[in-house]
Amino acid sequence: MTNKPPTRIIVGASDQHYPGWLQTHENQLDITRWDDWRTVAQPGTLTHILSEHVWEHLTIEEAQIAARHC
After folding, report:
1. pLDDT tens-place string over residues 19-69
2. Which of 3, 36, 47, 64 is the most exposed place for a label (fewest CB within 10 A)?
3. Which of 28, 27, 33 shows the shortest CA–CA distance to 65?
């Protein structure tokens, strides 16, 4: 991994892998927790967020919180 901050992440990657994308998993990025986002990337550095089969597992309140963090 380089020192350059990631600009593209996969939320809840499971077995997904795309070159140039940082894979994240629930145990390292809880999308409802701002502090978790800050461990993945500094504010303003993400250009793309891919999330498949994640949002349907959240309550409406959790989804609203997570959306604010994106």
Report:
1. 999 999 989 999 999 999 999 888 889 999 999 899 999 999 999 999 999
2. 3
3. 33
Asked whether residue 2 is assigned to any structural domain, the reply reads no
Number of domains in the chain: 1
Q: How far apart are CA 3 and CA 21, in angstroms?
A: 14
Q: Which residues form the domain of 62?
A: 8-69
Please return the burial class of 11, using the count of CB atoms within 10 Å of its CB with bins 0-12, 13-18 and 19+.
buried
Token pair of 43 as six digits:
């504010």
CA-CA distances (angstroms) from residue 69 to 8, 14, 18, 38? 15, 21, 23, 10
Long-range contacts of 40-44 (CB under 8 A, 24+ apart): 40/6, 40/9, 41/5, 41/6, 41/7, 41/9, 42/5
